[in-house]
Amino acid sequence: MVRFLHSADLHLGKAFGSMPEELRGRLREARHTVLDRLAAQARTAGVETILLAGDVFDTETPSPAVLRQALAAMAGHDGLRWILLPGNHDSLAAEALWAGLATARPANVVLVTEPTLLPLADDAVLLPAPCTTRRPGRDLTEWMDAAATPAGTIRIGLAHGAVQSFSEDGGASDVVAPDRAIRAGLDYLALGDWHGQMRIGPRSWYSGAPEPDRFKHDASGRALLVTIPAAGTEPAVEPVVTGVFDWRTLALECLAGDDPNAHLAALLPAGPSRRQTLLRIVATGRTRPPARTQLEADLQAIAPEFALLQLEAQELVTECESEDLDQIDRTGALRGAADMLLAESRDDGRASAEREVAREALMRLFSYCAAASR
User: Fold this and answer.
1) Which residue segments constitute the domains of the chain, with CATH numbers given?
2) Cβ 156 vs Cβ 125: under 8 Å
3) Closest Cα partner for 259 from 281, 287, 232, 283?
4) pLDDT in tens, 86-113
5) What is the pTM of this model?
6) CB within 8 Å of 268: residues ≥ 6 apart
7) DSSP character at residue 202
């Protein structure tokens, strides 16, 4: 029997430049400390090997601090073996990176930089497919088909890349055969590149990122605990939680005349978990200006409780009636401007983009007046 922890896509050193400055440091630290959480899960499960299927580092030129601190963290978990595979973000084209790793690595860190068999145990071997460049343009796992091993040997593949249309970049060609595990007689194929956990087949899995870094996958950070009883048997694959931050997207469907805040209250997480939650609220449907203004004000009020709180309302149509304009003013210049914008937003003779600009300007006027009245 062979057991190990499968992870990938740590992207150590990711800058998170689009995030608020206060949050960036917390996100970077969570990525570094995920090494400790992976080690804790390995020790809890009683396994000694952690396979990292590419993109351990976010770039081909991580800072000396990022590199050395990562190695120090791995070295601090004596008794665990870390096996690092080059991915597309930290490919073998980064010669200085892998030369530096080879020089500075502790004894419990193994670098698999060649497509050759690596013994894992007396009855198990690893078949790695290191990324040669960011976009190799070919299936680097093909060599596994012809790699001979003694009968009864457990065969474990380790690779990083797209299977069909599963590339993180969205435009990569099919670089890993979906049936590679069957073709190569693998008992398990440990994949990296897709940041969400995904089963390709009973013997092929993407582990997902152990610490999320985007809203795309809408799941907590996890790794995979894999148990292979013997050669030829189907592996047992168990997800284990490793993430600190929770990236979530909530769909808020609005109906004109309803109070969207009532629906939102039932969706929002409560309590101290908000501090570790990055939340994107995607509002769709229709609403009236007072309700939308109140929604935006309420979200602004609770936003500091979250690590990040965003409202995306591009698909939320705000329907304004003449009586709604009384909340801006009944007479005077402001009312005149509001009447003009309402008329422009309904003018079918104008381009749709112009009508949308008028609607957004009217909503901005509602927001200003509502804030001034508080």
Assistant:
1) 2-241 (3.60.21.10), 246-373 (no CATH)
2) yes
3) 287
4) 999 999 999 999 999 999 999 999 999 9
5) 0.86
6) 250, 279, 302
7) T
